[in-house]
Write a structure and sequence with these properties.
Helices cover 32% and strands 29% of the residues. It contains 8 helices and 14 strands. The strands form 3 sheets. It has an 8-stranded mixed beta sheet. Strands 10-11-9-12 form a 4-stranded mixed beta sheet, with helices on one face.
């Protein structure tokens, strides 16, 4: 028997409505939080349909891109746990292609991680098959690190008010980082791997730091909300502290073709499902959200710079005048907008470049249809 999943009942209603559509098959993502004790699924979201046809039974590339975009927008503590499919085909026929799709999905999402996985990370993903004729569900899990691992049956149980007793951690971290660009990789098209190397050093500093929860250092094996009322939503303010010795990097002399300075504040929100979360688990999720938030912003601004550069080359505009300009070229970072979406007080981080609130809502509706 595989892992058990406690599922918010709004997911049942959402899947039932999808079963009423004539389009088949319908694929999508399952979003929630897993831990050593139990797994929670709080949302399902359909993968948008492509205009092109003839992509096979499951559009693996499109599902992976959907997963990458959704993963970027999720608040701390929530992640993509697997996929669902609505089709009247037999479960045996769909498991093999879905298993390969989930493996590629995990590679796509984890390729943007700047942290090192830990031994207590859950490595099982879920595949949910829903038959549209009678809405019966078949749930399977497998080891994501071994694509050939056998599929295990898993318990899929709907429950109301799963999100009613969430704990939320809030944290604000000021950032002032100077990342060097080597002389041979200073071009816009080569900046991404160079900046990732620098961000990995900063990410390691965050991982080596420690957290204060409500101005207190809580032992790793103690419950985060110990002594507080059960079944009530708790809000905990956290501080991330980096020891001074960890901030001093080893001096390295290298040819430098430029630099990028990153300044601002990271506002993080981490949601913890369940009332018995340990301090160690909460600290891990908070640090990962801080790191992924900054990494996503850097990736977004690089995409924007690359697009602008390609547009200039395509239109034949002369950039010499711009290159002669000395001094830094400031760029505004995209901001996090915490917007309510499906589920009880469920919030998502929206990172839409150069967009106002209306654009953010439209972007959210596209990915979380």
């Amino acid at each position: 028997m595989g892992r058990g999943f406690i599922v918010e009942d709004v997911v049942e209603g959402y899947l039932s409505r999808l079963c009423e559509q004539s389009t088949s098959p319908i694929t999508g993502l399952l979003i929630g939080q897993n831990s050593a004790q139990r797994d929670f699924v709080v949302m399902a979201t359909q993968t948008p349909q492509r205009q092109e046809s003839g992509r096979g039974f499951v559009d693996k590339e499109w599902v992976c891109e959907h997963g990458r975009q959704v993963s970027r927008m999720l608040p701390g503590g929530l992640s993509v746990l697997g996929v669902f499919i609505i089709t009247d085909s037999s479960t045996i026929d769909i498991l093999a292609p879905l298993q390969l799709t989930v493996c590629e999905l995990d590679k796509t999402i984890s390729s943007e991680y700047l942290w090192v996985p830990t031994d207590d990370d859950v490595i099982e993903y879920v595949i949910l098959h829903v038959n549209p004729k009678d809405t019966t569900t078949t749930c399977r899990t497998f080891n994501i690190k071994d694509p050939k691992s056998p599929l295990k049956s898993a318990d899929w149980k709907y429950q109301s008010s799963v999100c009613s007793a969430w704990s939320m951690i809030t944290c604000c971290l000021n950032v002032d980082i100077l990342l060097p660009l080597s002389g041979s990789r200073a071009g816009i098209e080569n900046m991404d791997p160079c900046l990732k190397e620098g961000l990995k050093v900063w990410a390691h500093q965050i991982q080596e730091g420690f957290c204060l929860f409500d101005c207190k250092r809580i032992p790793e094996d103690m419950e985060l909300t110990s002594g507080q009322k059960r079944n009530e939503r708790q809000t905990v303010n956290a501080q991330l502290l980096i020891p001074l010795e960890n901030q001093r990097l080893t001096n390295l002399v290298q040819q430098c073709g430029g630099s990028m300075s990153i300044r601002g504040a990271i506002h993080s929100r981490v949601f913890l499902l369940g009332s018995k979360t340990k301090s160690k688990f909460a600290e891990k999720l908070l640090k990962r959200d801080v790191v992924s938030t900054l990494a996503t912003r850097v990736s977004i601004i690089l995409d924007e710079l690359l697009t602008s550069d390609v547009d200039c080359k395509g239109t034949g505009k002369d950039k010499k005048a711009g290159n002669q300009q000395e001094g830094p070229s400031p760029q505004a970072w995209s901001r996090s907008r915490f917007l309510p979406i499906k589920g009880e007080f469920f919030l998502a981080t929206v990172a839409c470049w150069g967009s106002g609130p209306w654009n953010s809502v439209k972007c959210l509706e596209t990915l979380y249809k």
